[in-house]
Amino acid sequence: MRPLRLITGFVLLLPILFAALVPAAAQSSSEPSTRWFQAASLNQGLPEAAGFVDRDTPRGLMETFTIAAEAKDWETAAHALDLSGIAPELQAKMGPVLAENLYEVMQRGMWMDWSGLPDRPDGLDATASSDNPMAGEPRRNFRLAILDLPERPVEIRISRIKPDNGAPAWVFSEATVANIPALHEIYGPSAFESSLPGFLQHHAFWTLAWWEVIAIPLVVLLALGAAYLSYSMVGRIKRRQPYRIVRTALDAVQTPIALMAFVGTFSLIKTFAFTFSGPISRILAPLQSLLFVVALALIAVRVVDAVLDRLVRENIEELTEEHQKDTRDLYTNISAARRVAIMLAFVVGAALVLIQTKIASTLGFSLLASAGVLGLIFAFAARTVLSDIMASLQIAIAKTARIGDAVLWHGDWCTVEKINFTYLQLRSWDNRRLMVPVAQFVSETFENWTKQDPQLTKIVALRLDHRADIDALREAFQRFVEADEDITDKESAKVQVTGHSAEGMEVWFMADGPDPSTGWAIACRLREAMLKEAARLEAKAGKEPNRPAYLPREREMLIGEFDRAG
């Protein structure tokens, strides 16, 4: 019975062992496909390379290609390309040409530090952080760059290829090789460059050839000349304009137009005459796009600023009136739209720079970008500026203060002239300009005298002697109210004693004005009239016993005399 039991147990274990071994076998058979691309052959039409060829690792491939290209050994450099898309009998002829063209494209269109590529056959990056989804994983291809063709963007990639009759090798991918002619048309030397003497095409320093060292300053000088001519032309047109508002608008756009002429001239020359090397192109392309966006934004913003400034300055006195409420809303909305336009221009400019540099897709930087480190750094550094921007938009949206509003700020009666990103410009009643940070303005209490109704009650407070005849002053006050045409509600005008102290009593004379400016004038006239009346009544009383007194007095108590009298 014992042998029978052993046989039965073995039979029962067979399916379990089979189920465990089959997946392992399948995994081992499919494992190579994750480490390389299979191909029937690799560059079988190329002769043996004269120089040393290291295609075992991604870094070895780039070193081989770069060293061979710098030595003009294009036959050796051709071994760094996957020429599977070319007939074997043509590979020996076309390989060196494509290698030379690819090197010129990389010099003018790419900017990368290939020393950061892994130096392992499996392409595994042992230094990658845990945030990288490819950390600890073998790679069979890498994207080095993305270059733009007129109809589409294309990638420069290296891939690990294993031919049936050889070991795996890292080479520039077949798709990249297929795009080399089209890329060379865009990023290769122009006809003008090709016609230059040979010594000018030799390497000078960094990645620059001698012709680039000479051409860059010349192009800058030509662009500066175009900017100067544009600036002068706009200046002549401005001086001949009979209308002041047109002269103001031209003066506002004079500098942005010169900037646009500089960028446009530089871009045209760079596009049609020269193709600068990769690092220079990577700097100049986003810079000229950014400057172009800045110039357009400056033209729009400065024209709006000039027109808005002119309108506000000419109508600043009338803006506080009740019937100007819609005008104040309009000016405030224009100011808010101006700030939104600046923010959009900044966002568009930054987006153009990021798109053209493709900085987020470069090796190593994508890890930093994916982790959000740059966003955190930017937000921390710009937290104050961002807070001010949001506060200025809050003022514009909530309309707590509008351009033309009369406000009382820290005891100063002011008119709002400008609402900028970081500060408000207030004009005080004596024509002083107060620059108030928006963060402070939105966090502190202030009086807005034209928020709902510009009409307000003005109070003239006088300190008078305890013996003053209030009824006599009230009669004089009523005569003033009846005679003054600016007081809107004559029935609500009144005189009240609001307090007293050892020095005298405090009397308020209250009258309504249609707006802050007129109310201020009413208060000044009322104060003058009441002081004159108090002086007149006091002079009229003379030295009569128990006479009323109006102007406050300082009293002295002689303690010693009272003691002697006692």
From TrEMBL:
Source organism of this protein record: Fulvimarina manganoxydans
Single Gene Ontology MF annotation: mechanosensitive monoatomic ion channel activity
Chain segments annotated as transmembrane: 208-231, 252-277, 283-304, 340-359, 365-386
Domain spans labelled Mechanosensitive ion channel MscS: 384-451
Signal peptide residue numbers: none
Tagged with keyword Transferase: no
Superkingdom in the source lineage: Bacteria
Matching InterPro entries: LSM_dom_sf, MscS_beta-dom_sf, MscS_channel_2nd
PANTHER family in the cross-refs: INNER MEMBRANE PROTEIN, YNAI-RELATED MECHANOSENSITIVE ION CHANNEL
Name of the protein: Small-conductance mechanosensitive channel
An example Gene Ontology CC term for this record: membrane
Pfam families named among the record's database cross-references: MS_channel_2nd (PF00924)
Transmembrane found in the keyword field: yes
Subcellular location: Membrane
Keywords: Membrane, Transmembrane, Transmembrane helix
